[in-house]
């Protein structure tokens, strides 16, 4: 049996087909990152979890509308409910409550993106092809930022469309720039998460170490934010000096602060609940400084990744 | 046959030059990895020989554009190593020394991804990945995750990803590292078959002389970052004066003495083999040996032009 030769010609044949010019390898890398991510079932679950506030609000608004439309006596109650609802704040809450799932999604997509390549010496494979460090890093970055962007944008647009079609008479379209403003802050969040996770991932050769580091930074800084929020809440609206500046000094804080500043709200209690002095109502920071901080943090982490990515270790 | 051209660079007559390196110096801080190295690498299969730390891998990395040379210049297929790194990498396939793969991928996924990274359209890359994996002997294991592969299979997949886009020049860094004897034989067979008659030029970097001798036609010996010698293996193994090894049925002192009386130089025998040297051409020398054997009653079992082993060539270069 060992003498049986295959019928097919298995000898080496040259490839003389088309080869694309260098310059578009980042998309090959990004596409591969997205393809691997989409195979993870947990990601699909987290997509719904990240939109939970919008989903709950959609259900609440739908039932409120149905019940009150079939019961004229309820019209007054609906009017009161709608008056309590601050529409931009619903987007703020949708955005804010998505941040923790976004952290998990960012870790799922990005913690191993460069760390696993470091472990498997994959950099030698990438950089020995007509693909340079810039394309590699950009591809990895896009492969994380793009899914985060889509996951955040879709529920926002669905909620906006539902509101715009149904609640115009309740002031939903009062701010005509609300959707464009959201479409500005969501990419900022995607860029922010992608940059940090890429930077952290490049520092390790185990995805779990990168995950632990980013999660550690996230929760430690968030604890700090909670502490500041607690001080603010206990001061009953009088903004103490450190709170004003430090409430937003966390991963969530930077993004929520930027969201508040861009959509121009100081926040209110979620689901239209009547409440005063909650943590969600800490005044918005100024737009330029908070965006500057977000940009600076993103750039720093991308630069870390840039320095860490090497085809060969050169001992100087 | 290698000869020095006017600029002192070793070059080969009648062969197309694949890579040309001139006065290349690469320094890592205070350490000089390549020291004013000049050579030409012709088409075919060339071995890059040198002890560990000689600068072989640095030379390959410089050719690939991973390392910026401190001084000097070089071209690979007429493309400048300083400025055309991307174009060079599109023409080159690298099989690195270390284990390397893209985590979480099957073999076919990995190789087709490597093809796409090299610029192949996705459908072509997938088709070619299947073809190359079959060629490298991984056809049966192509849907397995690469991380579950044995060392031998990992070596093969590294070769497959280097070959997928049909490179014109293949750089193999220690291709038989960690392989068992059978795996080593199979890998060398693959390298030999791809480098002979398939239009793929190969540079094999290794410190294993038998591997180089098995697959390469030419060698470049690099020691401490300097070029020590270069040429075809056949030429390098030739001894000065073209001595001959004469094998007798049994040692015969009279035979040796009679040869020396005829003005030939005879070195003390190694077993039954006498090394005979003279100014005579090989055909004439053979006649003298036959005559002397007849006169001395020695029975000649073999006569061949004496050559050095590649190991001797290497050791000579090392101690020069």
Written account of the structure:
The complex is a heterodimer of chains A (316) and B (320). Helices cover 70% and strands 0% of the residues of chain A. Chain A is built from 13 helices and no strands. The model of chain A has no long low-confidence stretch (mean pLDDT 87). Chain B is built from 11 helices and 16 strands. Chain B has helices at residues 56-64, 85-91, 107-117, 122-135, 151-163, 181-195, 209-215, 233-237, 253-261, 282-296, 310-319; strands spanning 2-4, 10-12, 17-28, 31-42, 45-49, 71-76, 79-80, 92-95, 169-173, 201-206, 218-223, 226-232, 244-248, 265-270, 273-277, 300-305. In chain B, the strands form 4 sheets. A 6-stranded mixed beta sheet of chain B has the order 8-9-10-5-11-12, with helices on both faces. A 4-stranded antiparallel beta sheet of chain B has the order 4-3-6-7, with helices on one face. A 4-stranded antiparallel beta sheet of chain B has the order 14-15-13-16, with helices on one face. In chain B, helix 6 (181-195) links the parallel strand 9 and strand 10. Mean pLDDT of chain B is 88; it is low at 6-13. Classes of the chains: A mainly alpha (316), B alpha/beta (320). Chains A and B meet through helix 1, helix 6 and helix 7 of A and helix 2, strand 8, helix 3, helix 4 and helix 5 of B.
